[in-house]
Amino acid sequence: MKINRFWSALGATFSAASAIGAFAQAPTVTVIHEFNSSNQSQPASNLIEMPDGSFLGMTGAPIDGAGNAASIYQLKSNGEFATLFQFSPGGSQCASGAPNLTSTPGALTQASDGNLYGVCYAGGQYGQGSVFRLTTSGQFTDLHDFQGTDGSQPAGALVEGTDGNLYGVTLYGGLSSDYGGTIFRVGLSGGFATVYEFNGNTGGTNPNAGMARGPGGNLYGMYKLGLGNPFPGPGGDYRIDHEGNITFPASFQSYPSAFAPVITSNGNIYALNQPSNFVGNGNETLEVIQPGSSEAGVVLNLPARFHGDVVNYEVGMIQGSDGLFYANGTSATADPKHPYVELQIDLAASQTNIFDLDGHGKIPLLSPLEGSDGKFYVVNGGGGTNGSGNVIALDYGLAPPAPGITAFYPTTAPAGTLVTILGAWFVNVKSVALNGRSVPFTAVSSGAIAFRIPATATTGPVTVTTANGVGGSADALTVR
């Protein structure tokens, strides 16, 4: 039985994967779904996995008033496709524009209340993006329409903090229409608040992607430009703690790319950063911010070309359950021979490998998603059989991952209190235990489980069991 204790499995398998030759075999590619005009335009969001192992995503549509509209769809690994919700025509609710290297499409997340929450990069009442909620019964609520002074063009998926709120960012707006951006908060029971406004005149600007949850439950994101303290360097990271306080711990040596940072079990924060003549060898770099450090260091210089094509890795990176990093790559060459590649990074061996995915789509959206079956799922905004994009699965031969617990809240509480477990791969959950004793639970999403502390409970770690193994918390839940 595999045990994943707060991402410790990633660290434990890291060197072993390198030692046995992690790059011996290219992934097997399977096309799960091809989009076409009957799918209401092209895909325009990340995929999220549901507790039953199916996936949800969004399509986008132009604001043309001709009946075209964005939608939310369900996709199963066997290719079954169904439209779950259709936004209103004309973009009044959502109009996720076509993605490019400087913006992001719409995004979905499922919160600990079981409801879907999403952002639309464009559309809404003022045409500058929106935040919405879709309940399990199909009730749609437009939670907020951005109008510039409170932000514009939300970027990346919302992330749930251990205070029970969802956090997100806008790329523009706030104090500056061009060199601004905001951090905002959405309550699960309602309410919207702008919690930080970036300012190009005095500090960081343009947070161009969502956030990631680190060890202990703090949230981390990246901004694009810094002009002075507390915003040094051409970009850096920000941290939101359990009380919602925002700090700016460190800077990068070059501009961070448009996706959430990758945070490993030891607290290191990794980002793929844009090319710079003053950093590394002038190509894109992988940089790391170590705990307690105020400045990132360059870990690797990434390959700039693939068989003559210039390649950018600015559309998403994740750490797989094998400890390796995986990133989407797109060509910056006009009429490229290889429009889509997948980059694999082994830090232990300081090694990179590129897999050619030519013919399997292009313009990948956001980061790959590692499913509970161990395969990586990628949404392509273009290419494919119909030229409208597709969803593909990359099989590197990884074993299905055991569930991973990143945080739970509250950490101290009396019997009868509702506890929320946050993490990943909570799919087809068999049991949940507190200090070794099973407790009744509700698996509300693949990243959240709820349970009440029983009257007879005692202090101890929390564990989640699926068919793939057991995930345990790093810290104990204190029962008062």
Please identify the top-level CATH class of the largest domain.
Answer: Mainly Beta
Broad shape: globular
Structural class category: mainly beta
Provide the helix percentage: under 10%
Largest sheet: 6 strands, mixed
Tally the helices: 1
What is the CATH-assigned architecture of the largest domain?
7 Propeller
Query: Low-confidence runs (pLDDT<50, min 5 residues)?
Result: 5-24, 98-103
Describe this structure in words.
- By secondary structure, this protein is mainly β.
- It folds into two domains: 25-395, YVTN repeat-like/Quinoprotein amine dehydrogenase (Methylamine Dehydrogenase, Chain H); 404-479, Sandwich (Immunoglobulin-like).
- Helix content is 2%, strand content 43%.
- It has one helix and 42 strands.
- Strands 1, 35, 37, 38, 41 and 42 form a six-stranded mixed beta sheet that branches.
- β27 and β28 form a beta hairpin.
- The radius of gyration is 21 Å and the shape is globular.
- It starts with a strand and ends with a strand.
